Amino acid sequence: MNGALRVELIDRPARLAALRNECDVLAAAARPRLPFATTDWLLTWWQHFQEDRRLVRDRFFVHALRDAQGKLVALAPLMLTERPGTGPLRMRSVTFFGVDKNITELRGLICAPEHEKAAVQALLAHLTERGNDWDWFAWDGVRQGGDAHQLLSSVSNFSWRRETTDYVLTLGDTWEEFRAGRSRNVKESLRKCYNSLARDGHAFSFRVVSEAAELPVALEDFFRLHAQRAGATNLPHHADYFRYAPARELLLALARTPERAPELRVFQLRVGSELVASRVGFLLHDELYLYFSGFDPAWARYSVMTTTVAEAIKWAIQQKLRAVNLSPGTDVSKTRWDPTLVTTCSGILVSPRARARWKWELVSDLNEQVRRLAWLSPLLDGARRRS
């Protein structure tokens, strides 16, 4: 890309809503496509998750990046959080939308891969010039090994913190073709999940809920099954992420416009008349993003979640989609499908101001103390019980 990008602040939701068409073109150009990059997700997330109280105050801090011809090339859906909300001791952090309890699974700059370096370079220069306005920036979603990754690695006040791996399946023209390309382990898992139901005389049915009138009920069923799975003591632990009202309300709000990106779908598996498994998905043009799931633990021995994912992939192939995103999170339910790995990195950019560096060092020290106490707490609890 020739020439530096122009950076402009979008300081309120109405201004972002006015750019919906341009922004959704960007989201469609991203690879892989993510529901969290669409305008509807961003605006709905802000509505339900932003905070404005004495101890925490979030400010709308979105930045648009345009080329010399005025074309929108990238969008940085940022917010500026002040803790406490006022006063000389407040700490000001810049983060991407999606600082929640795992509801936004991936976040970062929204742009086509070939524009990532130019967008990162322009945003970095823009924020550095305005270092008095913020203390540190939690920079997420930078593709590992790319030019933008190398650029940030050379910045003295930037440090990498963690990596996130997303798992994407490329589909074939038919289920048979796709299945033939899987490993022996996957084929055995598929055989087992289908045969175990049939062997015990259980017939299943699979349904994709897509109508606005039906989605609220389907989501309530999903919330129930997700909570049941989270509460199972005989299965690997995971949290009930939708016990929080904002998380439920976000999905219910998106369900009102299932014809608009991200197009919400709920996949349901029934055995007889009983709903035993459910998974939420988002249709993004010719890609499907598989989001959270839930199932009745009483049916765990039949691998009903594997059957649900397999049926969702079959449906995606029938719809002529080119890819299914299994979402991030390293576990065998994803890795056994032989997906393509897309790894992104997150890091911290500290403002060049001396006062900001001091604040970041203080916060880092406090976080380290919290981690140490968390590590020691089981030992301390044990000592107290023995005394």
Q: Which geometry do the CA atoms define?
A: globular
* Mean of all residue-level pLDDT scores: 93
Question: Low-confidence segments, ≥5 residues, pLDDT <50?
Answer: 379-387
Fourth-level CATH superfamily of the largest domain = Gcn5-related N-acetyltransferase (GNAT)
* Main sheet: strands, sense, barrel: 11 strands, mixed
CATH secondary-structure class of the largest domain:
Alpha Beta
**Total tally of structural domains:** 2
Helix content: 25-40%
What's the count of strands? 15
Calculate Rg over CA atoms: 23 Å
H/E order of the elements?
A: EHHHEEEEEEHEHEHHEHHEEEHEHEH
Query: Structural class, from helix and strand content?
Result: alpha+beta
Question: How would you explain this protein's 3D organization?
Answer:
The chain has 387 residues and is of the alpha+beta class. It has two domains: 6-166 and 343-352, Gcn5-related N-acetyltransferase (GNAT) (Aminopeptidase, 3-Layer(aba) Sandwich), CATH 3.40.630.30; 172-321, Aminopeptidase, CATH 3.40.630. Helix content is 38%, strand content 27%. The strands form two sheets. It has an eleven-stranded mixed beta sheet with strand order 2-5-6-8-15-9-14-13-12-11-10. A four-stranded antiparallel beta sheet has the order 1-3-4-7, with helices on both faces. α4 (116-129) packs parallel to α5 (147-153) and α7 packs across α10 (304-318). 36% of the residues are buried.
